[in-house]
């Protein structure tokens, strides 16, 4: 009696378990699968796409939305983690849709990566409701023709992803207004790309509190004023503020990052430059920088690219430039520089096709690589130096020719041996004989020498 009740109980338990696992498996085949609410959100998004010209969504059918193209789910929970909906063929005719993003925004609480680039051709995303995207780490909405006040957009983002957001890519849109001060409260930001918008006002100093910021691109906007001291951006590696209306003096104070390697401040209204250090790329082209080019520039030994073209620098080019032995690009054209162009080391190797292009548009410059000769004493000294260098160069090319000739000769012999059997046999016979002869000669001589001792 006891046994039958317990076995009955066991039967009930096992069948219930079986039923339950069966049900779960129905919903999430292979242990993975799709949360129904998220699947519906994706289908609703798909419906909003009026023309899927690049056939992005052809795989979007069937129960398991985790198998759909561009959708990545968590293996553990089944929630959608990543949505890569970037239009892969971003030419105007194929952009048509992504109208219904609200369903996505409202139902994807676990979403970490969202890429809607080149997708929207209207402004609907600005009406979207971000507040449920509280896991968002990376957001790409590049080139979507979005307009409106950037502050409003950022406000929405701050309501959900203030602590989680790491990368924000909003380049090539039509956002307007000023960057709000509370940008400094997105403390996890590593990449901020707001390039090619229509942003105005000054760059908020609070950006200096984004201490994880690695890449900051605010290029091609209408930012004005003096850029703030981004003192706490100690992780910054690239800073691009080109094509704005920024003014003031360029100095190390702007960015105290020891890791900054690339600084592009070209096409602004900067008027002066003080010390800068440890950069690899420095572009200050098209500003109003005036005065002498600081002699200290020769101390930035890491510099590989230096563009100071289209400014108002005057005076002589500092000879310390020849200390920049890593330099592979230099442009000093269209300034008001005068005097002898420095030569030596790396400077003589740059822009080999037409070195004069580095210096054009400076009426007072003289000496090679320009055609105009310098007047005065130092001409002779430099002339001597130059001719001795030319001599060196000739000698170098002579040795190079010698080595190349030798190598070619050896190669021909080797090839001949490789291809022609009879020659090969003859060669080895000959070398064998030679070896025997030398061996006998040496042994006899050696015996002769040692016996004499
Ligand atoms: C989930 O599973 C797939 C295939 O089984 C595997 O390729 C992927 O790396 C897994 N993802 C994670 C986050 O573990
Ligand atoms: C950007 O917005 C301005 C003002 O709203 C408008 O005049 C301009 O045509 C827009 N530009 C683009 C590229 O959408
Ligand atoms: C920026 O805004 C101005 C005026 O609103 C407009 O004329 C211009 O086209 C906009 N620029 C871009 C790149 O949208
Ligand atoms: C940076 O953050 C600190 C503390 O969070 C705050 O005291 C300071 O005022 C902030 N600086 C700026 C420029 O926002
Ligand atoms: C840098 O961070 C410190 C500590 O959080 C803060 O006191 C200071 O105001 C910040 N400086 C700037 C320029 O934001
Ligand atoms: C500079 O970069 C190195 C290597 O990536 C990193 O270890 C270091 O923490 C960075 N320094 C700062 C101040 O972020
Ligand atoms: C510097 O910037 C100017 C204009 O922004 C650009 O034309 C030039 O190619 C840049 N120079 C380098 C070396 O990238
Ligand atoms: C180049 O560097 C050397 C070694 O640091 C220094 O002695 C010299 O003065 C520098 N040359 C110029 C022209 O600055
Ligand atoms: C160029 O510099 C000279 C002095 O070196 C100055 O007299 C002249 O006005 C400057 N020209 C321009 C266009 O700045
Ligand atoms: C330097 O810049 C000027 C103006 O931007 C350009 O015409 C010239 O070709 C550049 N020279 C080199 C060597 O790139």
UniProtKB/TrEMBL annotation:
Q: Which GO terms describe its cellular component?
A: plasma membrane
Annotated coiled-coil positions are none
Task: Report the sequence similarity comment from the record.
Answer: Belongs to the RLP family.
The UniProt keyword set, sorted, is: Cell membrane, Glycoprotein, Leucine-rich repeat, Membrane, Phosphoprotein, Repeat, Signal, Transmembrane, Transmembrane helix
Residue intervals passing through the bilayer: 396-419
Q: Where in the cell is it found?
A: Cell membrane
Q: Which PROSITE patterns does the record match to this protein? A: LRR
Membrane topology per record: Single-pass type I membrane protein
- Domain (Leucine-rich repeat-containing N-terminal plant-type) spans 37-74
Q: Which residues, if any, are the signal sequence?
A: 1-23
Protein name (record) = Leucine-rich repeat-containing N-terminal plant-type domain-containing protein
Q: Which organism is it from?
A: Eleusine coracana subsp. coracana
- Give the domain of life: Eukaryota
User: Do you know which Gene3D superfamilies this protein is assigned to?
Assistant: Ribonuclease Inhibitor (3.80.10.10)
Q: Pfam family example for this protein?
A: LRR_1
């Amino acid at each position: 009696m006891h046994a039958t009740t317990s076995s009955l109980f066991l039967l009930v338990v096992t069948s219930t378990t079986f039923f339950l696992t069966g049900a779960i498996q129905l919903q999430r085949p292979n242990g993975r699968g799709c949360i129904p609410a998220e699947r519906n959100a994706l289908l609703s998004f798909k419906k909003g796409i009026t023309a899927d010209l690049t056939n992005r969504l052809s795989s979007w059918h069937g129960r398991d939305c985790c198998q759909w193209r561009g959708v990545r789910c968590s293996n553990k929970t089944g929630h959608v983690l990543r949505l890569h909906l970037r239009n892969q063929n971003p030419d105007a005719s194929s952009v048509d849709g992504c109208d219904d993003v609200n369903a996505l925004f409202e139902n994807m609480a676990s979403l970490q990566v969202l890429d809607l680039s080149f997708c929207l051709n209207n402004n609907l995303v600005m009406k979207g409701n971000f507040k449920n995207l509280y896991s968002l780490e990376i957001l790409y909405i590049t080139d979507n023709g979005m307009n409106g006040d950037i502050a409003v957009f950022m406000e929405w983002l701050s309501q959900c992803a203030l602590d989680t957001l790491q990368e924000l890519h909003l380049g090539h849109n039509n956002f307007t207004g000023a960057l709000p001060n509370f940008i400094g409260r997105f403390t996890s930001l590593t990449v901020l790309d707001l390039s090619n918008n229509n942003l105005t006002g000054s760059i908020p100093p609070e950006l200096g509190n984004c201490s994880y910021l690695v890449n900051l691109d605010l290029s091609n906007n209408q930012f004005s004023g003096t850029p703030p001291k981004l003192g706490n951006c100690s992780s910054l590696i690239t800073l691009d503020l080109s094509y704005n209306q920024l003014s003031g003096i360029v100095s190390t104070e702007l960015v105290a990052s020891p890791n900054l390697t690339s600084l592009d401040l070209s096409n602004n209204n900067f008027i002066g430059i003080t010390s800068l250090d440890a950069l690899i790329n420095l572009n200050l082209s098209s500003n109003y920088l005036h005065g002498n080019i600081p002699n200290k520039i020769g101390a930035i030994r890491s510099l590989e690219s230096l563009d100071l073209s289209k400014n108002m620098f005057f005076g002589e080019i500092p000879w310390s430039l020849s200390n920049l032995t890593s330099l592979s690009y230099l442009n000093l054209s269209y300034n008001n520089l005068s005097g002898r162009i420095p030569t030596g080391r790396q400077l003589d190797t740059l822009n080999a096709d037409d070195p004069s292009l580095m210096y054009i548009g400076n009426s007072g410059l003289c000496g090679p690589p320009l055609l105009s000769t310098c007047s005065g004493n130092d001409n002779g000294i430099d002339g001597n130096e130059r001719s001795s260098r030319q001599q060196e160069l000739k000698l170098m090319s002579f040795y190079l020719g010698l080595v190349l000739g030798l190598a070619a000769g050896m190669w021909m012999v080797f090839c001949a041996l490789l291809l022609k059997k009879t020659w090969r046999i003859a060669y080895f016979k000959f070398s064998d004989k030679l070896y025997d002869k030398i061996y006998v000669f040496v042994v006899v001589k050696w015996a002769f020498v040692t016996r004499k001792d």
